[in-house]
Amino acid sequence: FSPAYYSTTIPSRVATIYMNNLNTTNVNSFYRLFRDCVNLTRLECDKVNTTNVTNFEDMFYNCKSLNFSTVKSICDWDTSSLVSCGGMFYGCINLEFIDLSKWNTINLTSICTLQNIGMFTGCVMLKAIDLSNWDISSLNTADNLFYACAGLTVVDLTNWNLSGNISVSNMFTGCSSLVTIFCQHDWSLLDETQGMFTDCSNLVGAIRYSSSKTTAAYANPSTGYFTIQSTNKLLKAIVSWTKISEKYCQYVVFTGDENAADFSSYIMNLCADYEVEITSVYVAGDCYRRRFENV
Questions:
Q1: For a surface tag, which of 72, 103, 202, 283 has the fewest beta carbons within 10 Å of its beta carbon?
Q2: Is 99 strand, coil or helix?
Q3: How many other CB atoms are there within 10 angstroms of residue 96's CB atom?
Q4: Contact, 30 vs 59, CB < 8 A?
Q5: pLDDT at 221 > cutoff 50
């Protein structure tokens, strides 16, 4: 596994792939690496060297069985050289959650392919995503980033500050379950006529969604659809999720280093005010997922 460019055809029947014994030091592209691995459910890759990799495009394209457990190791990859990751999770219809907030994206320029496929396009089961700490100062296009993510309810883009001649066409189009976009900045885009929020009927920020207000002019927290994050992130998350429906099961996403037992007790106390009940606990690295259900 030594070529600078690596792309392969892996049989679609493969469910488990081990990468940790491979030398990827000189590899600079993972383009279409696991494309169409429709049965992939386990990927051992926590020791993979990605220091020089610039291209993640279409990496998990159409990996229909992939879930958070499959790819949790990539959350800690060294992405300091990453330039493009459009289509990376296209069609990953079983992916419910992913936390890539630790990624170093200082060199990232594109999260959309030349074929206009966004990084998470078609992830219909994706419910929550945290990209809050991304440095997007080099980004020039975010077209179709969450296009047709019909199950997405909460997106954390807290530190994103897009401005100038950046393309955001259809960034959230078709996110019919989306309730909250956390972002503290006003995106001062040169072209505010770009369609950005079409069919986001449940979206609430400074204003409630209107089908007549779907352009990038509403990418702000003062007169648009963004929400400034509460200083109490745990409380913020509870409020966000319980807004969705009176009787609705969902995953609530928290990050931190709390002890799992103490953390659960703390959350249960906070939940009392919102009449929600913890039904199960999920722990993945330093990312805690708690499932809540209204009672």
A1: 283
A2: strand
A3: 17
A4: yes
A5: yes
C-alpha distances in angstroms, 119 versus 51, 61, 142? 20, 9, 9
**Tokens representing 263?**
């953390």
Do 215 and 189 touch, CB atoms closer than 8 A?
no
pLDDT tens-digit series, residues 112-168: 999 999 999 999 998 888 898 899 999 999 999 999 999 988 888 988 999 888 999
- Axis-axis angle for helices 260-271, 233-242 (nearest 10): 50
> Taking the CA of residue 52 as centre, how many other CA atoms within 13 Å lie in the half-sphere pointing to its CB?
11
Q: What is the pTM of this model?
A: 0.78
Rounded CA gap, 98 and 269, in Å?
26
Those residues with Cβ within 8 angstroms of residue 155's Cβ, 6 or more apart along the chain or in another chain? 128, 129, 131, 146, 172, 178, 180, 181, 182
CB 290 within 8 A of CB 283: no
CA distances from 150 to 56, 147, 280, 291 (A): 24, 8, 24, 20
Which pLDDT score is estimated for 263?
A: 52
